Amino acid sequence: MVFIVILRLIVxxxxxxxxxxxxxxxxxxVTKSSDILSSYDYVIVGGGTSGLVVANRLSEDLxxxxxIIEAGGFDEQEDFITIPIxxxxxxxxxxxxxxxxxxxxxxxxxxxxxxxxxxxxxxxxKIIGGGTVLNGMVYNRGSKEDYNRWEELxxxxxxxxxxxxxxxxxxxxxxxxxxxxxxxxxYVPEYHGEHGRVQSxxxxxxxxxxxAYINSMRELNVPILKDSMGGDDAGAFWFLLSLDPKxxxxxxxxxxxxxxxxxxxxxxxxxxxxxxxxxGSLNVAAIGVEFSTGKGDKMNQVSAVxxxxxxxxxxxxxxxxxxxxxxxxxxxxxxxxxxxVDLPGVGANYQDHPLLVTVQSVDISINTGNFSNATWNAxxxxxxxxxxxxxxxxxxxxxxAFLPLSLFTNSTSTFISQASAQSPAQxxxxxxxxxxxxxxAAQHAILTRDLSSQSLANQEFIFGDTVIIPSLQTPFSRGTxxxxxxxxxxxxxxxxxxxxxxxxxxxxxxGFKYARTIRATSxxxxxxxxxxxxxxxxxxxxxxxxxxxxxxxxxxHHGCTAAMLPRxxxxxxxxxxxxxxxxxxRVIDASIMPMLPAxxxxxxxxxxxxxxxxxxxxxx
Length: 620
Fold this sequence. Notes:
Blueprint: H1 2-24, E1 28-30, E2 39-45, H2 49-58, E3 66-69, H3 79-82, H4 131-134, E4 138-139, H5 144-152, H6 160-170, E5 171-174, E6 198-201, H7 209-219, E7 235-238, E8 240-241, E9 243-244, E10 249-250, E11 264-267, E12 271-279, E13 284-292, E14 300-310, H8 317-323, E15 326-327, H9 329-334, E16 341-342, E17 354-355, E18 358-361, H10 374-387, E19 399-403, H11 405-408, H12 412-420, H13 434-449, E20 459-463, E21 467-472, E22 480-482, E23 493-495, H14 502-519, H15 522-525, E24 530-533, H16 541-551, E25 553-554, E26 582-583, E27 585-587, H17 602-612
Helix pairs in contact: 2-17, 6-17, 12-13, 14-16
């Protein structure tokens, strides 16, 4: 009897301890720094695409405590966030009239010497969900070779076949609906996930011009791909959106956040200023972070027992590293920052996908996208609100092409000769570290070799009723993201160095000409397509180049500023995404890519985050 009483008492105490623990540490959104614990197992800096995925996976183990610190807050489900056709209003795009929102850091790059000294906006999400709340919702992957390049550069296990299970793990794919069955959209189930938290689907509305674009691609002998998500994206294809088919609204990484877990805290509207370290006899160890609500406000600290994980994005992760004393020692010394680890690659190797908007008119009889017509626009909005149908369910197009160089120009051998004649350091910034030059030399050799590839896309061609937009996917140019202030509340200096390598200009000229070749097909002439911008007065290569320099903009695919490369090649993280020279510090966002894939980035970033947190318990 006594034994039973004691046993019942022990069980009661265990239940009470569990209840008390839940009260003391409830899963919640924390609004004040005073409400967080003094330490967590993991502190994740950034509640965006990768940060929320990894937080979700880590906190599956209820014995593991996790804190996310995000500089922004939650969106308020505004129309321009949730409704697909309005997604392009989220970021400033040349010619769109869109302005930056409160959910954007609203940063701008420095004047670009090769773009008539124009400054290009560099949007980045300052919001729970990060770029997945602001982007154009395109959900695609690059080719196998895009990711195999990563492994080739010294990262075992980072190839397409190794990544595919993690791409699938993030995704719940929905096949085409009955509304678009007439378009014969094909897919391969083996390439898609069924149980992930981000929804991918085809919208219920297809722009009528899509038929003409499909026929134009066939006319030009461009392959029409059955499903590009399996590692073959060299051709034209229907693209997926991160679109929830239940209500035809945006699907974001917020779906990975599980606030009911008692071991997961989210501190919003606080910005991390630096990583804190403890120096030992052999190694430097990350022990926590410093953060604040804003300039002039109190600095607070929180400890990380196991790891600090940087998921602040390709523009802010290098800033935090540099402020913490990790970066090029010459640059840090100039700013009076004591070097913790000399890593010249921090903030180097910046890459982006520059684009060029060309505009056209089309016969009004087939142009259903007349949003300037108030009556038509109101009817389409009502159709969306009442039935979740019509053009408000989709982006500005449904179909685009990712083309190898040889598919849109006859000058491939010329470009290869020009690339082969370059020295690796020739078009890099002055005083570039020797390790970065070595790393770029390896990339340059791959880029040069792959100019002749039939399975790697060199340019994307985005199709809409009134636009064809070439976008360079494999730039030779490299930029930088460097701090010039010791204040975390001053923006980093973003210098994309667009077109600094003349090969990028030459290839874009070829892309511009191919846009005209597409317009000249009988398929597009049947619907009355005529170029209106820049217009046919622009003819010579010199005139086209001037137009490019005047009008070049960006897909806002910032990446590669804390590259996963061997340290002697300018790398910042190893193949486990651990920062060189530091224990307990990892980077998990788009900055770790050594080279951008020919793709929109969100699906790739989801895959990176799922891969790094793949095992249970995760291998952190």
